[in-house]
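look at this stuff:

>
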Amino acid sequence: MAVHKLVLDDFVDADYSLFAIHCDLEDYRLAFHINCALNTNLRRTKEDIDFNDNKASFSLFEWENANLKTTWNLIKNSCLFEDNSINQGLFAARSEKNWTTYHLLNEHSSVNYFLKISGGNNEADETALELQKISAINMAYALDVEELKSKDYLILN
């Protein structure tokens, strides 16, 4: 019987660039500004990224450039979830609303959005400079994907 050895190192390498975006805009407004400035066509996907039994839902915008064979994803990093709990008090039960904030990548909890560009020859430095030119964005910079602890959350397909 022949022995087959699978090498998983081929699947670990990241074939995408990741940018952190600090911005106070709503997701659809940021997507509009990126579309205007970078000549893209980011559109909201029908399904969001869901975690923790649908408690955390992160908005996702996507654009596939067939000419350059790239896929752009704009992902919101934070999600505010309302948790209703019933507390048994001395005289009566009361319902309290607790708000919990979830982050897609906990190690970058201060980042508002991530821009992931997959495939093709993406120019990370040029894209970061173009993002910084958008007046609505406070700060944008490239992240090293290899140093991320929770990069598995960025596998979207």
Summary: The longest helix spans residues 27-38. DSSP finds three helices and ten strands in the chain. Residues 15-154 form a domain with the TATA-Binding Protein fold (CATH 3.30.310).
